[in-house]
Amino acid sequence: MTEALPPLRAAIVPVTPLQQNCTLIWCTATMRGAFIDAGGDLPRLQAAAEKAGVTIEKLLVTHGHIDHCGGTGILAEQLGVPIEGPHEADRFWIARLDEDGRNYGIEGRVFEPNRWLGDGDTVTVGNLVLDVIHCPGHTPGHVVFHHAPSQLAIVGDVLFQGSIGRTDFPMGNHADLIDAITRKLWPLGGETAFVCGHGPMSTFAHERRSNPFVADSVLARG
Ligand SMILES: [Zn+2]
Ligand SMILES: [Zn+2]
């Protein structure tokens, strides 16, 4: 008897000088996959896909910051695959990728996604279906990808282990961010593990206990 493979597998590749967690996810039934937030270091990303034996079929983007999507337009052209995400409210961030790239020392290229995403949309990767959750605050067009059967979320810069996303950028909004975390992420369940944009993984339950910004005890104090 053989054990059933989990339907989704993932590998995290930190990229760019900002050590942004690019996530390679793939469908084990079809060995087709996607990069979420291909910010840069494209040869390393290609090597990770080759090592896993995965054929990349699309690029997904959580939000328009240079470390998350500076390399996305370039990689999409190299691989001949479409780009899905983020929400169109991040169009102004994507429009400045060239300029931000020069400032951060990351190769950045402006792109037009093949599909902008909205709250309640789904995206497919092989046979996998991921839910799209619009979580504004860090940027107005930030989206989170959630694979319910795996209890896994890729949250970009919305939430970190022990912290939350910055909201001091143009169109950032602290109240929106707290709302998105507590009203849209917590209901996904405490057992849900999440990959954040920078640093180690965590679970929603762990953050609800201990995160100094959004723990239940902290928010109850108002
Ligand atoms: Zn960001
Ligand atoms: Zn980031």
UniProtKB/TrEMBL annotation:
The keyword Nucleotidyltransferase does not apply. It comes from the Bacteria. InterPro entries: MBL_Glyoxalase_II (IPR051453), Metallo-B-lactamas (IPR001279), RibonucZ/Hydroxyglut_hydro (IPR036866). Gene3D superfamilies: Ribonuclease Z/Hydroxyacylglutathione hydrolase-like. Residues 19-198 form the Metallo-beta-lactamase domain. Keywords: Hydrolase, Metal-binding, Zinc. SMART domains: Lactamase_B. One of its GO terms (molecular function) is metal ion binding. Its cofactor is Zn(2+). PANTHER family: HYDROXYACYLGLUTATHIONE HYDROLASE GLOC. This is Glyoxylase, beta-lactamase superfamily II. It comes from Edaphosphingomonas laterariae. The lineage of its organism: Bacteria, Pseudomonadati, Pseudomonadota, Alphaproteobacteria, Sphingomonadales.
